[in-house]
Amino acid sequence: MLKVEQLEFFYAKDLPILKNINFQVNRGEFISVLGESGSGKSTLLKLVYGLEEVVSGRICFEDKLVTGPKFNLIPGHPDMKLVPQEFDLLDFVTVEENVGKYLSNFDIPLKKQTIEKALEVVNLLDFKAQFPNKLSGGQRQRVAIARAIATSPKLLLLDEPYSHLDQPLKFELRKNIWNWAKNTGCTVFLTTHDAKDVLGFSNQIMIMKNGAIEQYDTPENLRNNPVNEYVASLLGEYVVLKPKEMKDLFGIEISESRSALIYPEELEIQSSGNAFQILQSFYQGRDYLVEVMRNDVILKFYSKSIPESNFVSLNLNQYRLI
């Protein structure tokens, strides 16, 4: 459905924004782009939508070339909808009128039904008579998402769609958009800097750094087999041990050219063995994240309770090489 090949983009030749971007998105997939600020995520969405001119390479949507502002009187692909970080709402009309902005007036009952369904997805049906300037930032963001959803696009592009939301609303909206996309068959392509936004709600995740793709894979494969430490750093807590540290702490020999990446859940307390000094514990809700040290090396593991002793012995169940 969407194919990007050898995409390059820059505003100045010595300052590349995107470098050799290649990927493909199938119809109905939910794709997330995860990366730090400045990694090129938002620029990629604008190029896919047709708001910027491609410098090199090409973008094809349904086997047709996506062109930029030079070739379109009104920039933006007609079968896509982009929700940018700036919401562009009309403050002098109601939420209902904002959501129905791009809908036909030919069938008014159908239009009202479409608007209400879109507002239900973002949990704002009770606010349809309100004016946007009376809403919070998170509510305005959800109005913008509902306006895009109401048009039934083939491809929905969301730039940091959960950035203004409180935690309880985040989970609800992630779930609602995921279910809406699956029920309608809409393809979704969103950006975020928070792995919690996408790990449970993506078919594929693209990790970006400095304008390049570090890894593009399923959520499970990204976490189980990150290609480097940067990818792992975006997905949660971890530690990296050098070959000498692996041998000293656990008696495991690995190649001198590799390192071992270990997640907290891969360490567990055992009755005997090397003693690690407990440094501190952090309550996580279901359990505690415990930091320990031995030979000046800090490790992290999860525990259902705070260990009573100042020292614990740990068993390493699993690791991966990077």
Properties at a glance:
single chain, alpha+beta, 2 domains, six-stranded mixed sheet, four-stranded antiparallel sheet, OB fold (Dihydrolipoamide Acetyltransferase, E2P), 322 residues, 34% strand
General description of the model:
The protein has 322 residues and is α+β, with helices and mostly antiparallel strands. It folds into two domains: 2-234, P-loop containing nucleotide triphosphate hydrolases (Rossmann fold), CATH 3.40.50.300; 239-321, Nucleic acid-binding proteins (OB fold (Dihydrolipoamide Acetyltransferase, E2P), Beta Barrel). 25% of the residues lie in helices and 34% in strands. It is built from eight helices and 17 strands. It has helices at 41-49, 95-99, 108-121, 137-150, 167-184, 219-224, 229-233, 243-250; strands at 2-12, 15-25, 30-35, 56-61, 64-65, 80-83, 155-159, 187-192, 204-209, 212-217, 239-241, 260-262, 267-283, 288-294, 297-303, 311-316, 320-321. Helix 3 (108-121) crosses helix 4. The longest helix has 18 residues, at 167-184. It is globular, with a radius of gyration of 24 Å. The model has no long low-confidence stretch (mean pLDDT 94).
